[in-house]
Design goal:
The chain is built from 9 helices and 17 strands. The protein has 374 residues and is of the alpha+beta class. 32% of the residues are buried.
Length: 374
């Protein structure tokens, strides 16, 4: 009699346990589209489970859970570095230049998509203002429908991020930014509302450390520093752009590409050797830029279509400036040059210093540091 009671009680307990497991598995399947033993047991034991000494965080949420901003940044960095590893170039570190985040917040606030911003600043201007001293290139996207605070559909946020990444890789300039072997870090700006995000990928170099940042004292340009990775000073140019001013949203909607400046103001060269002299005072130079928003009507109507990456070809005879000092000793360098003639022609504004380094037979653009001349 005792054995029969134990058998019936055991059978009852087993039946109840199997029923509970079946119910939780069915509930997990309906809620998440699949069955996970850990997730199913999490319905019964909602606290952290301990399995063989490891803590497994149990989530009763949907597989289409909205993303957190750190998760999105992590995924963006992973996709970029996956491409770079495949291309056999060094992976990037996560950068912390604040201008990337500031630009996404501006695009979100005013609802536009452009490398320029409402204050008339380009990426390199914002980068310098935020403390950057080397070279920067930028990819932007938005608005992109990434579920952040609410589940907005069955499509996972990772699939949306990867689709956006493939869009970058399909564009020539954007792909070059991702795979440039001289880039060393990427600052990732991300601003989102409940349904969509604006994204900035800001690629940065780190091959030059200034002892004295480029500056114009009166009319004299001065700078000094040290190159890394075996680079040495190869060439130097100064670009000009008028003082920045606010841009309308119509101007921004029609403007996408950006350049170093509106035009090259001068190329700087070292002093001639003793008993030698330069015969030329100008050099013919060609460059491409995007549409200059400053040349567009401020009352231009807004456009819902994405801005076109239009290239505008330019050609000009650019004056040479012979430096008063052009010193190199190993990786160290120092340059001084009188820009009085250049400033006399162009006036006050934004002067951007572009430095090229050389290693072996390769020339590498290293800076786009701007100096504000009031």
């Amino acid at each position: 009699m005792y054995r029969l009671a134990v058998f019936l009680l055991s059978a009852l307990c087993l039946t109840v346990f199997v029923g509970i497991c079946a119910f939780t598995a069915w509930h997990d399947y309906r809620r998440n589209g699949g069955v996970s033993p850990v997730r199913a047991l999490g319905t019964l034991f909602p606290d952290t489970l301990h399995i063989k000494g490891l803590e497994v965080e149990v989530s009763a949420g949907s597989t289409t859970q909205p993303a957190s901003l750190p998760e999105i940044r992590s995924e963006l960095l992973y996709l970029i570095n996956s491409e770079r590893v495949h291309a056999q170039v060094p992976p990037l570190n996560l950068g912390f230049n604040a201008s990337a985040q500031q630009h996404t917040e501006s695009m979100k606030q005013y609802g536009y998509r452009s490398h320029w911003d409402v204050y008339g600043l380009t990426p390199q201007m914002r980068y310098t203002l935020a403390g950057g001293t080397n070279r920067v290139r930028q990819n932007i996207a938005g608005p992109v429908g990434i579920p952040v605070s609410d589940v907005t559909g069955s499509e996972s946020w990772r699939a949306v991020i990867r689709e956006m990444h493939q869009g970058f890789m399909a564009g020539q300039a954007e792909r070059e930014n991702v795979l440039d072997p001289w880039h060393r870090s990427v600052s990732l700006g991300l601003s989102c509302d409940e349904a969509q995000c604006w994204v900035v990928q800001q690629f940065e170099t780190d091959h030059l450390e200034f002892t004295n940042l480029p500056n114009i004292y009166g009319t004299k340009l001065e700078m000094s520093g040290q190159f890394r990775e075996g680079l040495e000073l190869d060439a130097l140019a100064v670009w000009f752009h008028p003082h920045s001013r606010r841009l309308s949203l119509g101007q921004l909607d029609a403007t996408y590409r950006y350049g170093i400046g509106q035009k090259p103001a001068t190329f700087v060269r070292p002093p001639a050797s003793p008993r030698e002299y330069y015969t030329e005072s100008l050099v013919n130079y060609e460059w491409d830029t995007g549409i200059d928003p400053y040349k567009l009507d401020a009352s231009l109507s807004r456009s819902s279509a994405p801005p076109l990456a239009v290239e505008v070809a330019h050609s000009a005879a650019v004056p040479w400036t012979t430096a008063d000092r052009w010193f190199q000793d190993g990786s160290f360098f120092s340059v001084e040059a009188d820009l009085s003639d250049i400033i006399g022609v162009n006036g006050n504004g934004v002067y951007t210093v572009q430095i090229w380094g050389r290693t072996g037979g390769e020339r590498v653009p290293l800076t786009n540091y701007f100096v504000f001349l009031p």
